[in-house]
Amino acid sequence: MRWKKKLSGRGILVKLILAMMLLSIISVAIILGVALNEQKQIMERNLIEENERLAEVAARSIEAGYIARTLPFRTLNQINASEDVLFWWIVNPEGEIYLADNPEMCGKKIGSISWESRKSLVKDYVYNGEEIKFLIQPLGIGEPGKVEALCIGISMQSVREATNKMIITGLAYFLWIIAFAWALSFFLARKFTGPITQLVEGTKAISRGELDHRVAIKTGDEIEVLGDSFNNMAQRVKNAINTATATRKETENIMNTMINTLMVVDPKGKVVKANKAAFDLLGYSEAELIGTPFNKIIGTQDKETKGIGLEKRLKEAADSVANFETTYIAKDGREIPMNFSASVIIDEEGKLQGIVCDAGNISERKKADEERTGLIKELEESYRKLTQSNRELRKIVYITSHHLQEPTRKVQVFGNMLHESVEGKLDADERENLQFMIDSSQRMEKLVKDIRSYSIVITKEKQLKRVDLNKVIAELKSSDLAAVLEDTGGTIFIPETLLSVQADPTQIRMLMRHLIVNGLIYHHNGIAPEITIRSSREENMVRVSVEDNGIGIPKEHYDTIFEMFQQLHFSKKGTGIGLAVCKKIVEQHGGEIGVVSTPGAGSLFWFTIPEGRGERGDGREENGEGRTEKGGR
Questions:
Q1: Sheet holding 148-155, edge to edge
Q2: Fewest beta carbons within 10 Å, which of 146, 151, 234, 263?
Q3: Which are the contacts of 359, defined by CB distance < 8 A and separation ≥ 6?
Q4: Is-above-0.70 flag for pTM?
Q5: Count of CB atoms within 10 A of residue 367's CB?
Q6: What are the tens digits of pLDDT across the range 301-359?
């Protein structure tokens, strides 16, 4: 029963076995039927031929006895001795039996039979309810034209018995062949259906999630190829599922590690998925939040979207992304300001499948915005006050410098007048003291001018423009630098056309004048000063260098010379403010300034400043040409 149940459960196996069994039965039945029929006919034919020979022998004996006037009883007895002969009759031409093995048959008629053929004749006949063969052997006796015949009844019982034995034997063989056919069918069916059964079971196992299930088919034919294809497919399915699982886990990890809240809303407006940030921010558990109407969570929108329903706004964003500020309502009723964006999920037919809602908590930003707004107001007020203070300071400096210049100039004028009026009347010490007073008044005048320049730099608002350094140098030589160039015999050399800069024209003029003047006045006695000015690009800045052949500066003083009132011990010609002014101008333009010097061999002052629009200062491209200007001309 267990085997039958297992077999009946395999539909293909049972059908294949039944088909092969039916084919075997039909084939064997046809073969046995044909064979039995053929054998029966052979036995009948042999029996009839044997009796025909016996009848012919008996007929020749009877004819011979007729001539000798004796009956061939020996021959007739031989006929009776045959187990297959039921009777023998000698029939006259009228069909009447006049001699028989059974005397009771004499005188009876058997019907009209034609003997004209003179050949033996076999007919089917019924004798005592039995089907027999009726053999008629014509006799050459009697009157001419009237043929008598020897009739023999041949029983087919032996043939039937032999046939029955053959049938029984055939049935035995038939059953043996059927049993063998069943076994062969079962073997062949198992051979062909086993792999199919493995494939079916493998498919069921894969569908149950047993992704490591494999089939082992080694038939060496197309079914084995099919099995290998199934295993490859199973491996690909496993890889695809593992990849999808890893991707899903990775997506969930990304969602749960996001700072922003992420919720997926279905077309009915209910939350179907959310990340950890959403649960933490809103105070809901996963069971509480999933299935909650999204309209219960999202609050008011910004003024631009106020009055427009969220559902309508998101539907209108089917081909774009909705982005606006709103609030989320937490479980405890708190309203949390959020920067909200949403994108829709649509299928291949363009139907809405869901909405992905991403929102970031902007509470801190809102707070920072309020603080920034307050700070901006404070800065604006401070700037206003500072501007006012700068104006007042500039006014005070201007008035102070003006008032200081007036007595200083008078001291200088009257000192010179005094020096001329007492020429030759004062001793050496008195003349030295008088000259010291005049020099001090001149130094005082320069100091007042430099302080005024410095105050203008730090208090006046810059007016940035594109400044052509070539024109600045040309203007300085014809005005501010003309006298010092004439006095020192100095030369300004510009190897290549200078780049333009973006700067305050007044301040850049003041910067260049200070650096050039320093190079002209701090020179070796008896050696005419030479000033070389170059420019180059450094990203979005211009680097300008002013190089001289003067007395140089020790390295330890590189930083101190840019501070207010800092002078080298050997230099008493300046006020100690000029380089401080230069540094302040460069810093206010977002650049840097420095110096590289070799004592006794000259100095190179450099600074960086934003680049102006255009190429060279004169609007031309660089061509490598230089020019030399001497004596201010």
A1: 97-100, 85-91, 148-155, 130-139, 121-127
A2: 146
A3: 260, 261, 326, 328, 338, 339, 340, 341
A4: no
A5: 11
A6: 544 444 445 555 555 544 445 678 888 998 898 888 888 888 888 888 878 888 888 88
- At position 204, the amino acid (one-letter code) is K
Helical spans, DSSP H, in 348-427 = 363-421
DSSP labels, 122-145 = EEEEEETTEEEEEEEEEES-SSTT
User: Rounded to the nearest 5°, which phi and psi values hold at 396?
Assistant: -65, -45
For 45-103, the DSSP string reads HHHHHHHHHHHHHHHHHHHHHHHHT---HHHHHHHHH-TTEEEEEEE-TTSBEEEESSG
CA distance 394 to 383: 16
Q: Which tokens hold the place of 4?
A: 């039958």
Q: How many Cβ atoms sit within 10 Å of the Cβ of residue 437?
A: 16
Residues of the chain by 3-state class (helix, strand, coil), percent to 5: 50, 20, 25
Asked if 332 and 283 count as a contact pair (C-beta separation under 8 A), the reply is: yes
Alpha helices in 106-221, H assignment, sequence order: 157-207
CA distance 593 to 543: 10
Question: Which of 289, 262, 277 lies closest to 358, judged by CA?
Answer: 262
Gyration radius (Cα) of the chain, Å:
69
Distances (CA, A) of 393 to 146, 460, 578, 579, 582: 180, 10, 20, 22, 20
Model confidence at 105: pLDDT above 70: yes
- The b/e string for 9-46 (b: 16+ C-beta within 10 A; e otherwise) is ebeebeebbeebbeebeeebeeebeeebeeebeebbee
Longest dimension (CA), the chain: 225
The amino acid sitting at 38 is: E
Please choose, from the candidates 204, 225, 230, the residue with its C-alpha nearest in 3D space to the C-alpha of residue 215: 230
Q: Which residues contact 219 (CB under 8 A, 6 or more apart)?
A: 191, 195
Contact criterion met (CB below 8 Å) for 78 and 64: no
pLDDT, tens digit (0-9, with 9 covering 90-100), for 120-169: 788 888 888 888 888 888 887 766 667 788 888 888 887 777 788 888 88
Q: Which two tokens stand for residue 332?
A: 């405890």
Token digits of residue 493: 């050399």
Q: Give which of 588, 564, 586 is closest to 574, Cα–Cα.
A: 564
**Mean predicted lDDT score pLDDT of the chain:** 75
Query: How distant is the alpha carbon of residue 163 from its chain centre?
Result: 82
Quote the tokens at residue 492.
């300004």
DSSP string, 7-28: HHT-HHHHHHHHHHHHHHHHHH
**Which residues are within 8 A (CB) of 510 and not within 5 positions of it... i.e. 6 or more apart?**
453, 457, 581, 585
Instruction: Calculate the dihedral angle through the C-alpha atoms of 164, 167, 173, 176, rounding to the nearest 10 degrees.
Output: -100
Cβ 331 vs Cβ 351: under 8 Å: no
Give the pLDDT confidence of 447-479 residue by residue, as tens digits.
566 556 555 555 555 578 899 999 999 999 988
Among 137, 190, 245, residue whose Cα is nearest residue 20: 190
What does each C-alpha distance from 155 to 50, 131, 630 come to in angstroms?
13, 8, 164
Q: How far apart are CA 512 and CA 220, in angstroms?
A: 96
